[in-house]
Structures
1.
Amino acid sequence: MTATTIPERKQPTAFQRFFRARGREDSPFGRLLIHIALILACVLSVYPVLRVITISIRPGDRLLSTSLAIIPDDASLEAYRTVLVEKEFLVWLWNSIAITAATAVVGVILSATSAYAFSRWQFPGRIPGLIFLLSTQMIPAPMLMVPIYILATKLGLTQSYRGLVLAYSVTSVPFSIWTLRGYYDTIPHDLEEAAFIDGASSLSAFWLIILPLSAPALVIVFLFNFMAAWSDYLLARVMIASERSLWTWVLGVRDFQSQFQTQWGLFAAASIMVMIPVVALFLYSSKWLISGLTLGSVKG
Amino acid sequence: MEFLTWEVVLNALGEVGSTVLYIFAGTVLLELFVYFLWTPLRALSRRVDGWLDPLGDRLRHLVATVLMAVVVVFAVRAIAVGQTPSPWAPYWPLTVVVFGLGLFISPNALNIFQSELRLAYMLLAPAVVGLLLLVVFPLLWELNVSLTNLNPRHFQSPDYIGLTNYLEVFTKPVLKQVTFFPVLLRTILWTAVNLLFHVTGGMILALLLNRKMRFKGLYRALLVFPWAIPQPIAVLAWRGEFHFEYGFVNIMLQRLGLPAIQWMTDPTWNFIAMSITNIWLGIPFMMVILLGGLQSIAGDYYEAAELDGASAWQQFWGVTVPLLRPVLTPAVILGTVWTFTNFNVPFFINQNELETSDTLVTALFRSAFQYFNLGDAAAFAFVIFGLLLVFSVLYIRVTGGLKGAYE
């Protein structure tokens, strides 16, 4: 009988710790390196935004400067005042809020219901339908602009929000259906079957069981719909560009930025004001972001 | 100049609100329509099936397919191109009849009208109608236009010129000077460079964040920033920062003793500027996705690998990457498609409209909206669409991803 040697467990090196799964300790030196790397990455990701803030509080006569100071000398809120009081910015912002809120809600309702059908019924055309939805993601955006514009003109929907609301609500539906269907698929059917035994209908099972359980995915889909409509430039330009009072903030901000010399500060101030609510919404929902985006696809 | 008065507030609210109400009313009508038509249609499908049964499934399939093909051809041709209505247009109700015939002749009719599917179709109906109106119809229109010479010289009554436009995509300049293949190569380069940086950058950050540590939430929040900012703002801000004299990129270069760079006028540097912007924008998405994937990998795998003496590098390629595949495959496909079709970055960063910085999608936009060569642009659009479709199918085949979708 030969004695089998049990391989001795080696102490992992600092390099190994770098690729380590969570929950195990790193050496203090490794930790320091990781923090330094992350701080560097954070600076890279935040610095351009800081610059926008800097420019927004520069006094009007020193907009063009080669200074890199984060807080400029004689910081002033002049640009904010100009944007709010002398420009139509608030009108544009309000237009955007109204359009975006409506489309995000309509989009989520449309996709949440259809995704349930895709997840729970084997109807003919289900797989071709899913493939069709996936292939719509390959359509380059300008491709649909001309026909949508012509359709909207024929139906009298241009230079008004009707066409925009309709188009925004529908164009993000394919992606939303895919995300939600993936998430619904991870919810065991037993839950609904138990409800059916208690006499629930499919619809009430959907309302009472599926929807509450898929909250993270619904948040993601809402956020995607919201962001898509909130920061759209192409469709807005095509549909409502000719009348300034109808503009969304994107068209307005683009207009500020088109002349570098004069309105750089206005662009910066307007951007900051548009950014704050969206970033807040985004960071607030970031804990759902991870589970909502990955759970659906992990199943595979 | 207009200010935010009550009138303005109510006006926007009224327009948006009434649209939502119309959508709601339309949905209710649609649902009622499906609900009440279901039983008679189901009965009809059974009766027709009884009559046609002796014909055999093969023949019925064939007839149904032919009828559906007729419907598609007719639907395409009946859509007006240009100002004059199509001569086929008055007969469009016939398509509905033919469509119905095809549907009931097909042996699938019995499957389609199963009793337990009523609710499924009711759930699907609003999205289907919306997609028909805003995706399928525009696509058919585009298909139709791609066969015509619709451009500023033939705006009133364009002629059908067959597949000429498709040939010309490859043989003639797509804009003023550039031809298709250089633009295609540039777009592929753009996609590859961006995606490489997105995935590696996102992976490194996700690996760094995937541990118990102080300030983890803060780091994550700051790193997600570029994704959270509305894209037009981020892109326009970057464009300003690439300004020759006053942008921070050149200021920093000069402070480091390097020469300033002509980001806006030099073709190569303009392309690099586009890439820097888009890499900055895209890393957070990959990071979030990969971090989610990493968190779902149990620590046991690593312990087992370590017992077997696997090095960290081997653990990464042997454990982490394979287990991340279900997350990585869809993310890479989406990332590729989004980068390939990205419009904002190449369009805005390219302030001087250099044709040498155009990707396929911005070239498409210019061709359609600046030169109004709608016929050419439509064919061009289908070529781009086809390329992406082929890429995705191949990628899914090769990696075996998205299997879950077909269960």
2.
Amino acid sequence: MSKILPAGTPAPDFTLHVTPDQTLSLKELRGRPVILAFYPADWSPVCGDQMALYNEVLPEFHRFNAELVGISVDGVWCHAAFSRDRNLHFPLLADFEPKGAVAKLYQAFRDGDGFSERALFVIDKNGTIAWSYVSPVAVNPGADGILEALENLPK
Amino acid sequence: MANLRVPVGPTDHAQGPADAPVTLVEYGDYECPHCRHAHTIVKALQKRFGSQLRFVFRNFPLREIHPNAEAAAETAEFAATQDKFWEMHDRIFEKQQDLSDELLLDLAKRLKLDAQELARALETGEFAERVKKDFSEGVRSGVNGTPTFFINGQRHDADFELDTLVRAITEASM
């Protein structure tokens, strides 16, 4: 598994497509906590996969005023279809061109596989990584670690 | 390794003796096909381990992908107030493919429960808090999809096929 960027590191800024004609930059979210959830791919063949789970937990993330974004190497059209199918209420970013560039910035890219780790980052409102975690690629990390990290953020 | 944050207690729905050497907790969703499959596996485990196993079911409805899951969970909780949780639990899974409000009301009638009372409870969300409590606690314990199993308080990260669970339960009982 990768050695992903640890807590205390300034979160590298990036700009990625969130829809075919819209982009999102990390710095636009400054001022509130951000949860970056890197995951290998859309359409994993299980119910309640990681993104579907986070979709259900969204109200709890919002209690901390936190913004959740999912990131994978899938393209915008794939994300759009996946998001519609699963009824997702948070943005999915396409780390598509050059492939995995943002995952690489966060040291969460799996060379050889061509997709990212299941890596989670909680970034504080000033843009510093407060918590990071990488799960074995076959194990959905759940949301408990994220909630605990949000709780531990200085008020 | 994720651990069950909320120990099994008197408000849980449990089958099997409280002092069984192994307690298996499932967080599940009545509309999830994997949980339907797990339901048959759990039945086989109960048959195999008998009084050595206590089984507990907690609600984890994924409402955005399963539009009937919440009503089904609330219906089972409604049945529980009249000591018919497990009867309802089994029937809902058996009829999963036809899940709808009408089916839930029909199942209530068949179990000689007051269907009108159930309709009112679903309307007012009388059991919504209970279901939400299971869900939130599950998230805190590291439930990461459905079904998620905990064996003696530890999340079971391997698959939930019969052989795998038999091995894991046997190990936990030693």
